[in-house]
Amino acid sequence: MFALSELKVLKKWRKTGASEELHRALVLTRDEDVATLLVDVTHPKVVSLYERWGYIKVGEQKPYEDSPTFAIMAKHLTGRSVSE
What we know:
2 helices; Aminopeptidase; 4 strands; alpha+beta
């Protein structure tokens, strides 16, 4: 399993497709079957973005008392569905 932690692009590169290209280039180099990431559930646009990139929400996590709640998202990198 490959865990992605923070993909951020500079403001001038947002809405240009750069983040999707970076993400694709990163995950295509991985040998793992699954990529996972956490997204703050108070950012539904970001959750939706990752869903368009093929991730599905598989749960939620609140790692500690004063942290936000995160959507746990996963994507199979080998063409199989996450539930397989």
